[in-house]
Amino acid sequence: MSKYAGVRTLILLRHGQTEWNAADRMQGQIDTDLTELGRRQAKEAARELVSRNAIAIVSSDLRRAFDTASALADHTDVPVVQDRRLRETNLGDWEGLTHLEVDADYPGARVAWRLDAAYTPPGGESKLEVGARSLPVVRELFAERQDWPGRTIILVAHGGLIAALTAALLDLPPLNWPVLGGLANTSWVQLSSHGPSIDQPGWRLDVWNAAAKVAPDVL
């Protein structure tokens, strides 16, 4: 038996490029579409990840994530299940603004937001809140998918959510959440659970920002 037979592998894939990504515009939960480049990125990621033989694909219900997940499903016989708890951070009053516009209207706020997981954009939610709403998705899969040990589950979501969920899974102190930086479009994170139970999952971070260059939009 493989020494990895009992290990649960979790891949968190960010969606492909949207016009708003290209324009440095804050999307949050606004439902935007993939660009042609984004659709190509999704297909390339799918070709790379199909070898993981995923047993489940769970996606944010926002189109940019669901369409990326659908490209992956096209290469497998695994259907996409949508879960709104995997939506991107609610950025409140910042949604629809460019980075420059946020900096002009709320001086210093984006820096504070990056450095403080408890910082809440006006009308939005903090990174800690994003981690808290998405963590149950993984805990439920842990409890329900008895076939997960030795196999892979893929969640398709958004950069901010993936960073928050990863920090929550690793149980990082909030002060340390900013160590997880941005993700390029259709890059992914891999974690593995080596623990004996849902209450002691023993998550480890194997890979961060895989198969992607550090793009300007994540700096």
UniProtKB/TrEMBL annotation:
CDD domains referenced in this protein's UniProt entry, alphabetically: HP_PGM_like (cd07067)
InterPro entries on file: His_Pase_superF_clade-1, His_PPase_superfam, PG/BPGM_mutase_AS, PGM_Phosphatase
One Pfam match: His_Phos_1
Gene3D superfamilies: Phosphoglycerate mutase-like
Protein's name according to its UniProt entry: Histidine phosphatase family protein
